[in-house]
Amino acid sequence: MSQRRAEAFGQPLVPHVSHTIPFMTLYPKIVSTLLFPLHEHFKGHDTPGILRELERSQWYSQDHLADLQMARLRNMLVAVSNSVPFYRKHFRANGLTIADFVTRDGLNALPLIDKNVIRSNFDEWKAEDGGALARHSTSGSSGEPLSFLLGSHRISFDIAAKWRATRWWDVDIGDREMVLWSSPLEIGAQDRLRALRDRLFRSRLVPARDLSPDRIDRILADIRTFRPRMLFGYPSALSRIAFRARERSLRMDDVGIRVAFCTSEVLRPEWREAIGQVFGCGVANEYGARDAGFIARECQHGGLHVTAEEVIVEVVDDDGKRLQPGTEGDIVITNFAGPEFPFIRYRTGDRGVLSDARCACGRGLPLIQSISGRTNDGLVAADGSWVHGSAINHALRELRDLEAYRIVQESRQYIRITLATRTPLPDAVRSALTRHVHTLLGASVQVEIAQLPEIPPEPNGKFRHIICNVERGQSEPTDNVGAQENL
């Protein structure tokens, strides 16, 4: 779920440089004002100029930002209705003109799209006057990889938005950064040029795979030596490192870490608490995707701010009807920055809740109240009905000393819940959890609850809380022996 690493935020191998050297206290300023802008210039990106605009516009009023969004939406729709075959046909077939898009409600005249729609219409998705575009792809962690095209302005906007949100935490490009990441799209792309660039920007990659206790101990030692100002990565990986430090009674809050940016997974409350407490730092949730763009990041006041200058975020129900703030639904993104290969009313595959509150930081950027998980993170009840994962996630988050959990469903009649907790699970808690599952899925469902010292992530390094191997509407097998054997 979230935004994957932008090109400019690389992952290097760099030596530790003492904070006591006066020159190095100026180094982030040199990188952010000279080296990184030069880097972006040579890549044909207008990132620094966009950043300057974003640092002004974040303080606009909500009404001013809404007007800015609509102006950019209309400009983008003019471009796609003229130059993108798919949307040109849609506008003509439905008699649409730009005059139909005076308010956000005008978006209802445009179809909701997803990965399958883009794949099926790929040749009609690129603007005829789009020029040279770079091919990108999603990691396919949801089982649905997507190839798509991006122009330099769209890439620049994503990097600038990330850069702005990084500065909210008093850190900048050039401050030491440790990245826990496992995407083969980034790890496999390392070369000498990238390594040199990343050495200059002082960001170190730590592959978030095979996190055995011994390897985590080495990572903890590396953190103490490297002394990063910020961490970035999967919250499941960062929390496992924090839990290991806590287990060893190892103090890490004196290293100098200011913030841990968590992305690509739902940031569980127990993970947030462990990361912040062990490292003595702020914890910032981030939401975005390679395809949809840099959507939101959390500020120091706890507001998960939408990059409103680039995207409109909608939350819709299963039928595509827009939901009001405070109601959970499917997240839909419209990105203004890339008309060459547009993402308009694009289903991200995530679920969340919008907020109509105003953050205490004073920024006018709208807020996402919460990200609940993937739309396909759910379970199939005994009667065949679909139950979204949030219905059971909320119950599990209340368990004491919970470090991680995984729910696997192989049939309508069998579910296994594996918990990693620091203390034994009382019988009363087991019974209450079983009753909750029966309420959700049916009294006939067999519930097995197990405890393990730790629960490993998937091979790609990400952590899946819910794994449902039962298709909606699938007929019920005659028994559940096979399901238990597979577990």
TrEMBL record:
Residues 207-334 form the AMP-dependent synthetase/ligase domain. Keywords: Ligase. This is CoA ligase, possible involved in capsular antigen synthesis (Related to CapK protein). It comes from the Bacteria. One of its GO terms (molecular function) is ligase activity. Pfam families: AMP-binding (PF00501).
